[in-house]
Amino acid sequence: MMQWRAGTVERELQRWAGAAVYAVRLEGEDADGTVKALAYSDVVGAPHPGDRVLLNASALLRGLGTGGLAFIVAVPDRLPPDPHPGPGHIVKARYTPEQQMFLAVDEQDSPHHSALASADDLRGVPVVVADLHSALPAVVAGVRAEHPTARVAYVMTDGGALPAAFSRTVSTLRAAHWLAGTVTVGQAYGGDHEAVNVHTGLLAAVHVLGADVVVVAQGPGNVGTGTPWGFSGTAAGEALNAAHVLGGHPVASLRVSEGDARPRHRGISHHSRTAYGRVALVPATVPVPDLPGEIGELVASQARALADASGGRLLLVDVPVDGLEDALRRAPVRLSTMGRGLDEDLAAFLAAAAAGRYAARAGTH
After folding, report:
1. Which structural domains are found in the chain, ordered by start?
2. Are strands 256-257 and 181-185 parallel, antiparallel or unpaired?
3. What is the rounded distance in angstroms from the CA atom of residue 72 to the CA atom of residue 13?
4. pLDDT tens readout for residues 54-108
5. How are beta strands 52-56 and 4-16 bridged, if at all?
């Protein structure tokens, strides 16, 4: 259930495209407390110091990791002006108090509708699918290490954060011209283009953004329950199915870890093994990073078992990782996965970068 709080904005702490974080002093029984609260400017406007704000404090009070802060729901004494009337009738965050209406790239009023009305093929463009949002900059780093001028589009699914503005990674990658654009699909919103589902999101990435490589991953945040099927990353298998149906080149980026203490995520995570081995039903390429030492032997063994269990549907391709660590260190964003940085879990980022390297090679030959 939602836990409400009220407070007063003291100062702005950080800002990026579409969002800002504020220090907010709480009212009432929590009057001595100051918390971090995030506001989406397109939803609630831009709060000023001294503004009274209403907060959703549920994630903050639970101490969650990603998203573990308060969210500004409204600035009741200074509401933002209505947006200019425009086309578009696709509602996202549907039937919630903060639902919004967008012009989807695939709807009738869109200038791209005619192109998408006749589009039914991804022209063999590589589609790299990853479980976690943290893989996105690493995949792009791998693409750029191989093909610095490749156009990379990001299709953001709705398994994690719904607003694209929550991701400082996306904002920074766009500003650094590492991404040609973002398409938010399903209930996710706030990308350069909106799309109704993953299928039209993929088509828009190729036919509207002109992508040489497409990366599909959920937004920041990830649902996991410690059960075989209770995690949001199952959507990665469904994205591979969509890429294949539409004539793309499905590429399964492995979720790998040498730093996770949980056995089910050691080496190749069970999330990848389930999503690619059981949810995906189509042929796909699995880039296997040539990692050194014990972790490399474990990943290679697990990858062979995954391919064998698929009955030949999954094609393993060994990818060298020479030069990829340097490419990762040049990324314009801080690399972090499940709270671990590049030095704490290098294998995680090398695996994603290897998928990007493979996709760049496949997409430019």
Report:
1. 4-74 (2.40.50.220), 113-363 (3.40.50)
2. unpaired
3. 14
4. 999 998 888 776 667 899 999 999 999 988 888 899 999 999 988 999 999 999 9
5. antiparallel
What is the distance between the alpha carbons of residues 360 and 140, in angstroms, rounded to a whole number?
Answer: 9
Q: pLDDT for 153-193, tens place per residue?
A: 999 999 999 999 999 999 999 999 999 999 999 999 999 99
Q: What is the C-alpha separation between 110 and 243, in angstroms, rounded? A: 23
**Helix, strand or coil, per DSSP, at residue 156:** strand
- The answer to whether 308 touches 314, Cβ cutoff 8 Å, is no
**Sign of torsion over alpha carbons 159, 160, 165, 170:** negative
- Amino acid 364 reads T
Q: 0.90 cut: is pTM over it?
A: yes
* Residue (of 312, 318, 316, 276) closest to 296 by Cα position: 318
Indicate the residue type of 65. G
Q: Single out the residue of 34, 95, 41, 44 nearest to residue 69, CA to CA.
A: 34
